[in-house]
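Dear support,

I submitted the protein below through the web form. The confirmation email said the job was done, but the results page showed an empty box. After a refresh the structure appeared. I'm attaching both so you can tell me whether what I see now is the final result or a partial one.
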Amino acid sequence: MDEVQQIIEKYNSVIKNVEAKALSSQERAYGGVIRSEKGKLVEEISRLIITASKQRYPDINFVLIQLESQLGGDYSKLPAKPLGSPSTHTLLSYFDVDLKIITLLKEERDIKKPIHKFFKPLTKKSLNAAIKTIAEVLKRWAIQTGK
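What the results page shows now:
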């Protein structure tokens, strides 16, 4: 199975089963289970996307990978090159970094419609776009090292 399909299957499994896990938990509150499982999912998806990019370099580049957007602007429309939002432009103006923001699911996050109850599909297109963006960020290091 390729990495992209593996990520989609992991996402589908967690999101479609987190409700039952939260309802049956005797050790944690419902919301705690939901937040914990989604947090672990985002961490794993991020790790798998970076691994799929097949490059590791010691110097830091900044990439924010988010499942759903709460940033405003056009991030939730999944454009190839997001223009961003006034709030992110203001925030980034305080730091000397080139931050790439990758959003995996379409539409802004709606706290009244959590994805484990109002399923949003994770697509090959958004994952491949994320992998491409990360590869482009890392490309300069391949050029510098001759790889």
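Response: this is the final, complete result; the empty box was a page-load delay. The beta strands are 62-66, 99-103.
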